[in-house]
Amino acid sequence: MTMEPDSTEASRAKVGPSTRWRRIVRFLRDPRVRALLTLGLIVFIAFAARGHYPFFAEGWEAIKKANNWYITAATVAMFLAMVAQAEVMVVLLRSAGVSLKRSTANALGLAANAWSSTFPGGPAISAAMIFREQLRWGATPVIASWYMVLSGALSGAGMAILGFGAMFFLSADVHPYSMAFTLVVLCLLAWATNWLAKHPEKVESGLRRSLSWYNRRCKAPEDRWHDKVAGFAEQLSAVRLPPPRMAWAVALSLFNWIAEILCLLFAVHAVGAEPPIAGVVLAFITAKLVGQAQITPGGLGPVDAALTAMLVGVAQMGSSRALAAVIVFRMISFVGLSIVGWLVFLWTFVRDSMDTRSSPTLQQIAWGSAARETGSLDGNASSDGDGPPTGTTSH
């Protein structure tokens, strides 16, 4: 009986880097720790945005002076845009055999948008978050990658179609060939992605031949890495995307952009302006292109300047009304949507596993007893009686 404490102390002394790393990961996955980290992150964001407080104050004043009916219509349009974006995910992933609820897709879309719009370089964080969650839903890495490529191509093609139409109706002095070329490339990318999903055996055969040729050039075994692509065809073969469903995904991607443009148009009407619709469309697309290089949270500054300038130059609005319309639009599409997204993230991805009765205490996790309970140290189970946290902490 006297040897048990000594063996326990000896096992603690032998804790290696891998065990310490598991202990750290387990500590960070604890829902209470994640909740505190998220709240701290929000406080940091509020502190970092202190230089833009005048913008928020001006935006609130602009909203109070604007037409409430148009404000409501703009909010509904932005809501419909997010619903359409989530529905694209539902259509494409269900066609690949992934079971997901619409409520889950909408929650992920709002939370990912909050991460995307809050941080410089946020779209990369958002894409990684979406990819990880899709893997949790049962999608394979190949299917998740297929979704990313196809949804991006459909979204870009929808924007190109709207931009092409706006330039046509405005008779803008812009050479249309560059936009037409972009549209053709995006359509070809969408078609190629769908073709790959319909012919997975040809894709795998082509990958094997390419690898064999490369291995011969490198004087390596010809079948090197062939096992890495062995399941490629099997994963892609799960995709069933018939033309009607593909057309529905295209329509949803286009409606996503139309709803966002309607949000901007209603914001413009809310301040009493009545510009040509084509001018508003072109201003919106220009601002979106500027926002691709997101060097500030949500493109705050560059996007607002570009949108204001385009509303004045193309939509023939006065500078004061254009600025007021931009502030109203950004308060809805950036500030309001980010707040909603963060609330959804806290409720869906942090709160859902806050069952402290079955979770180990923070002290247990920090000292490693929780890790030993789950088998980090073989044969040394703790007698504290606390079980491991629920599986939902892997969000």
Automatic annotation (TrEMBL):
Organism lineage string: Bacteria, Bacillati, Actinomycetota, Actinomycetes, Mycobacteriales
Keyword Transmembrane included in the entry's annotation: yes
Protein's membrane topology: Multi-pass membrane protein
Transmembrane segments: 32-49, 69-93, 146-171, 177-197, 246-268, 327-350
Positions of the UniProt region annotated as Disordered: 373-395
UniProt cross-references to InterPro entries, sorted A to Z: L-PG_synthase/AglD
UniProt xrefs under NCBIfam families: flippase-like domain (TIGR00374)
Major subcellular site: membrane
Name by which UniProt lists this protein: Integral membrane protein
Compartments where found: Cell membrane
